Amino acid sequence: MLKRLQRWFQNKSGIGENRDALDVLRRRVDALAAVQQQHLPETLTLPWLPEGLDGVSTAIHRADAMFRYPLSASGGTWTRATTEYFATGGELAQVAKRTAPAATSVLDFGGGYGRVGRFLAVEFPNAQRWVYDPKAAAMAFQQAQWGAQPWDGQPADLIVAGSVFTHLYMDVAHRELDRLCELLTPGGSLLVTLHDFVLATRTYAATEESALPELEDQLQPESYASVYFSQEDWARLIPRGYRSTLRPERFGGTQQIMQIQRAEPEA
After folding, report:
1. What residues make up the domain containing 12?
2. Same domain assignment for residues 12 and 78
3. How much is the pTM?
4. Is residue 267 part of a domain?
């Protein structure tokens, strides 16, 4: 009865009508965006590029949410979205180079359409470079554009997981950390980016992809969310015999970078 009275009041005051009208408008906008998406070329034509990208592929896939979301959030400001995209990827690749300058095998785990992977190709030109992502189209794009090879479970000197564990539920994050740590070669490192720690781990349904329903090859919401770990929960996820250390750099100015290595045996 209370809900019926509330809806009656909203309709009388116009709130309900406005809400319904906005919902219809949102669905129409989503439909138009979906139609437009199908007519975009696979590789976007960028009207502007920042300086300092010599040797770096500037190919961006039309379904790359890591680019499309900041472009949408900035109201279509190409300079802002493009600067953010390339700066974020380049910064993490540079951290990777400082972490393991002599790495001969590098895995871009959950690398998507290559925000970081394109820079790993420049920083580690002679290394064996693999990519793994649940999206087959993303892996094919990285392979075609800068020669990253599909990962098949091989051990690696360096594993980079940029903005991956920010989207994994606790149980999935635990399994993936165990798996990746076991695959590190002796002396190897795993770089993981995380949202800043919160008092209690929180999970939200909203992600870059959920804000862009027109993008093809969407990940399922039951396995892809926005996750903010508490420091205590993150520490519990680290496999026994390994340590997680906070690096001084930031990822995209919004995420912390953790370096995970095998712990030194006690004397």
Report:
1. 1-39
2. no
3. 0.89
4. no
Identify whether 104 is part of a domain.
Answer: yes
Q: What token pair was written down for 79?
A: 């300079």
Task: Assign 139 to helix, strand or coil.
Answer: helix
- Domain identity same for 18 and 88: no
Residue closest to 69 by CA, chosen among 167, 206, 211, 166 = 211
φ, ψ at 202 (rounded to 5°) = -130, 145
Neighbour count for residue 258 (Cβ, 10 Å): 19
Indicate the Cα dihedral angle 224, 118, 99, 171, nearest 10°.
Answer: 10
CA–CA separation, 27 and 45 (whole Å): 27
- pLDDT, residue 77, reads 93
Tell me: the pLDDT tens digits for 198-245?
999 999 999 999 888 888 888 888 889 999 999 999 999 999 999 999
Q: Do 113 and 32 belong to one domain?
A: no
Residue 70 lies in a domain: yes
